[in-house]
Amino acid sequence: MRGRAQQFVLREDEIKFPDGAEAMYAVVESPDSAFVVPYFGNGDTMLVRQWRHAWDISSWEVPAGTFDGDEDALTCARRELAEETGLVAAEWREVLWAQLSNSITDERAVGFVALGLSEAPHGHEKDETEDLAIVRVPFREALEAALAGHLQDVLTVAMLLRAYHMAREGSLPDALVRVMLG
User: Fold this and answer.
1) Do residues 64 and 118 both lie within one domain?
2) What is the CATH number of the domain that holds 135?
């Protein structure tokens, strides 16, 4: 079996386990993706609500998206932040690499923290296939929503926890840490 849908390819591999047993194994080939936790100087961040067909729900998430062709992770992160929120960042920190559903897909995600935010020259450039809403919230509120299970996108939760850890470890600017941690 093999199939293709947009950027995704489904393939079946015949594999041999260490004990010699053989089986067919399905793999979804997927472009990698970038996730961004944008930080304003007052400690706020941005969340984006997107429709997720597989779950038939609207999901609040950090800005994110898949790589376009041979695009690198930072270029993707910059593009997605501008498209989804209308923002650009002066400083970028790569903070997380993750394998998504590594039992069935080859997709990797790269996470960034974006600092020194300002309006993008062309404003919010929403992709025509997306039904988005954006909200600016205090970082603590977003983190608490993730910890309470109200934000369920796994990379959003991982990125908010990673950013919180960075604040606790002093890996972010002191003024930002003070407003994030209270």
Assistant:
1) yes
2) 3.90.79.10
Q: Are residues 9 and 83 in the same domain?
A: no
Contacts of 74 (CB under 8 A, 6+ apart): 34, 92, 94, 112
pLDDT of residue 158 exceeding 60, the answer is yes
Q: How many CB atoms lie within 10 A of CB 24?
A: 9
In three-state form (DSSP H/G/I as H, E/B as E, the rest C), the secondary structure along 112-151 is EEEEEEEECCCCCCCCCCCCCEEEEEEHHHHHHHHHCCCC
Q: What is the pLDDT of residue 122?
A: 74
How many angstroms separate the CA atoms of 56 and 33, rounded? 21
Its domain, for residue 111, covers 31-181
**From residue 134, how far is each of 28, 45, 84, 112, 173 by CA, in Å?**
30, 10, 8, 18, 25
